[in-house]
Design goal:
- The structure holds two protein chains of two kinds.
- By secondary structure, chain A is mainly alpha-helical.
- Chain A has one domain: Non-ribosomal Peptide Synthetase Peptidyl Carrier Protein, Chain A (Orthogonal Bundle), CATH 1.10.1200.
- Helices cover 60% and strands 0% of the residues of chain A.
- The longest helix of chain A is centred in the middle third of the chain and has 15 residues.
- By secondary structure, chain B is of the alpha/beta class.
- Chain B is 47% helix and 13% strand.
- Chain B contains nine helices and seven strands.
- The longest helix of chain B is centred in the middle third of the chain and has 29 residues.
- Classes of the chains: A mainly alpha, B alpha/beta.
- The interface between A and B is small, with 4 and 7 residues.
- Chain A: Keywords: Cytoplasm, Fatty acid biosynthesis, Fatty acid metabolism, Lipid biosynthesis, Lipid metabolism, Phosphopantetheine, Phosphoprotein.
- Chain A: One of its GO terms (cellular component) is cytosol.
- Chain A: Pathway: Lipid metabolism; fatty acid biosynthesis; Glycolipid biosynthesis; KDO(2)-lipid A biosynthesis.
Chain lengths: 77, 245
């Protein structure tokens, strides 16, 4: 896993309080990791801070899995 | 009880009668306060009166950019933001049939839209801290209506609906959103009423007198306190029994 993927994973584990091995690339925040809609907003905020980027609302809507987040951040960073 | 030590509070409309008293009450409870308003002079006088732990953050709430900048300015000045009191309000009274679009819109802009933007701008910090208090000062007329105040009553009623919705959204993050709804309080705003209007009003107030800004401030301090953590989405009426709703 890349450095970005590791950092994303760490944020997800900390924020959602889930087991590390559940945070796979295809894991959906809402369907697999038990996040609610507010959690997803908070995760996006946490990613913005961690990586010093801005994630616009329309892009944030499309970030539904761990892999989506890693892909977006890799392209934006 | 109701100790606010270590909390950071932003109060809008702090140059007005009720706002200044709210700032005093929060400061007396131990909070660091950011005093906002359009007129700098009374804000600075209040800051001087309060001494340490009082910051002046002027803002013009009819200017969207100024509104967006205010929470950030308050956080920079104080070092955090735990309590937001949306107290600022304007009136442009007139009968509905003669009310201009401007008078309608300016009251909605300042009393409702700016309050929403300030809430939105404060939430990130509060949600991260898993602790926050938002207190919106509404008005009895938001629920009872008042002739000549179709704009003001609409804005205040709107603020109640907005508060309840936001309360639902952020309750799980330790952030509460409540309203304090004053009845008739002796301030510059109610001084404008004629003697006839005032005596007519007295007959409708079971307690038999106007309220004081201090009585509003005390309600705000309670809702801002750790003890009020289980109270959210509520409207605390402080109106001398004028309307029991």
């Amino acid at each position: 896993m890349s450095d970005i993927a590791d950092r994303v994973k760490k944020i997800v584990v900390e924020h959602l309080g889930v087991e590390e091995d559940k945070v796979t690339e295809s894991a959906s925040f809402i369907d697999d990791l038990g996040a609610d809609s507010l959690d997803t907003v908070e995760l996006v905020m946490a990613f913005e801070e961690e990586f010093g980027i801005e994630i616009p609302d329309d892009a944030a809507e499309n970030i539904q899995t761990v892999g989506d987040a890693v892909k977006f951040i890799t392209e934006a960073a | 009880m109701f100790d606010l030590k270590g909390k950071y509070a932003l109060v809008t409309g702090a140059s007005g009668g009720i706002g200044a008293e709210i700032a005093r009450a929060l400061h007396a409870g131990g909070a660091i306060v950011a005093l906002s308003g359009t007129r700098v002079e009374p804000l600075e006088a209040l800051a001087a009166e309060l001494g340490e732990g009082a910051h002046v953050c002027p803002a013009n709430l009819s200017d969207p950019e100024s509104v967006e900048a205010l929470p950030k300015a308050a956080i920079t000045a104080m070092g955090g933001l735990d309590i937001l009191v949306n107290n600022a309000g304007i009136t442009r009274d007139g009968l509905s049939m003669r009310m201009s679009d401007d008078d309608w819109q300016s009251v909605i802009d300042v009393n409702l839209t700016a309050a929403f933007r300030l809430m939105r701008g404060s939430l990130r910090t509060m949600m991260k801290a898993r602790w926050g208090r938002i207190i919106n000062i509404t008005s009895i007329v938001g629920q009872t209506g008042n002739p000549g105040q179709v704009n003001y009553a609409a804005a205040k009623a709107g603020l109640v609906g907005a508060s309840k919705s936001m309360a639902l959204e952020v309750a799980s993050r330790g952030v509460t959103v409540n309203c304090v709804a004053p009845g008739f309080i002796a301030t510059a705003m109610t001084d404008k009423l004629s003697e006839d209007q005032k005596s007519g009003l007295m007959g409708q107030i079971p307690v038999g007198r106007m309220g004081t800004p201090h009585e509003i401030a005390a309600a705000v301090r309670y809702l801002a306190s750790p003890e009020a953590g289980y109270v959210t989405g509520s409207v605390l009426h402080v109106n001398g029994g004028m309307a029991m709703i």
